[in-house]
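Operator note (shift B, R.M.): manual run for ABC transporter permease requested after the automated queue skipped it. Running by hand, logging everything below so the morning shift can see what happened. Input copied straight from the record, untouched. If output looks odd, do not overwrite the archive copy; leave it for review.
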Amino acid sequence: MTNTWTMTKVLIRQRIQTVVNTLIVTIVATIITAILIYFGGSAHFSIELFYYAFQPYLIIGGLYLFIRLAIRQEHTWVDNYYRSVPITNLKLYMANLFSTICNFVIYCLAQSLIFTILQVASHGIHWPEMSVWMDAAEGIIILGLTCLFIWTFVSLVHLLSVTIMAFLPETQIRLAQWAIYLVVIITASYLFNQLWQLFLMPFSNYNIAAIFGVFLVIFTLISSLNVYLLDKWVETK
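Run finished. Output pasted below as returned.
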């Protein structure tokens, strides 16, 4: 029987190339953008130019990789190769989700290192005030929980869709898909509105214990349902 860590390492290695490719593209895009700005006469050629050119790609690259990892994660649930590995569905679920997290963290660390190098080279070393560290901690905590929630929620929608459509005739599959999309859009809109309100709150107003408690309950419920669907209903392709 394959253990969780072995499966996690396999999935991390298979997806790390996506991380590397995304990182390379953001670096190349930064260089091209800086060159275009320079020849456009908008700035002098300097490290500071690359520093500012790199900032938009922090978000763009992160969003792209987030989506790509989510797609890779969902393919695993219905892939005959992974489902035939001698491992329980619970361990496969944990390995798949954890490998997604690890790859995203690797990318974020690499981007943060590049950003820090550019910042130090262009502006020198400036230790931020405690309030800035607190704001950064706020962003990291909420962003991490949000990413984990979205990945598990996407899996729930995907697995429910596969389960429901398996019982429908082909003529009704398209209608069922649109109904599922509608429910997902309404639910996601509400949840993201709540998350946005949470982002806007000052860190001092947060009840971290309560946030982790609510998240743990929701994460456990969604994950339990995902594993149940994998175990009982979802077939491979």
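Quick read of the result: DSSP finds seven helices and no strands in the chain. The mean pLDDT is 85.
Leaving this for review. - R.M.
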